[in-house]
Amino acid sequence: MTKKLTPAAEIDAYCTKCKLDLAHRIISLDGEKPYKVECLTCRGVHRYRSPKSAPAELRTTKTKSGQATPTSSALSGAKAVSKTPSTKALAAMEAENQRERDWERRVSGKSLQEFKPYRPSATFSVDELIHHTKFGDGFVARVIDKNKIEVMFRDGLRTLAHGYTG
Fold first, then answer.
1. What is the residue-averaged pLDDT of the chain?
2. Which residues pair with 117 in a beta bridge?
3. How far apart are the first and last CA of the chain?
4. In 2-74, which ranges are E strands?
5. Where are the chain's structural domains?
6. pLDDT (mean) for 1-28
7. Which terminus of the chain, N or C, has fewer Cβ atoms within 10 Å?
8. pTM exceeds 0.85, yes or no
């Protein structure tokens, strides 16, 4: 026995903003099926999408005419197969790995005396080694202007103040 869906009821759906199957609140129905839903995590409002974790035979897609049709995997009876990372995702992962290798090459193995303690009032130049009390060791990637620098730390690039006389 399935529970009758009503507006304000909660349902699992695929969130188009979070890109995950999450709990949603039904805003409106199209007959007996959810039409508009609100994600309880990000509060985004969008049309209902079946959860990606739902069995393939229960997932549907809409055609241009608005008719719901089973997905191709549902038609073939095949189980859903996980996708490999896209070319864009692979490029992003490689860029992140390259950034980490660059940080390692420039920072690791250096003595503590080679790092200048970070203070907003101090001035820094490109490639200078910095020790920040919160972010750790890094190097100046670029000087943005007379009061801002970009520093590469282990966890990524950060914009910091320098030469601050306030």
1. 81
2. 131
3. 69
4. 10-15, 20-30, 33-39, 45-47, 60-62, 68-70
5. 10-76, 87-161
6. 84
7. N
8. no
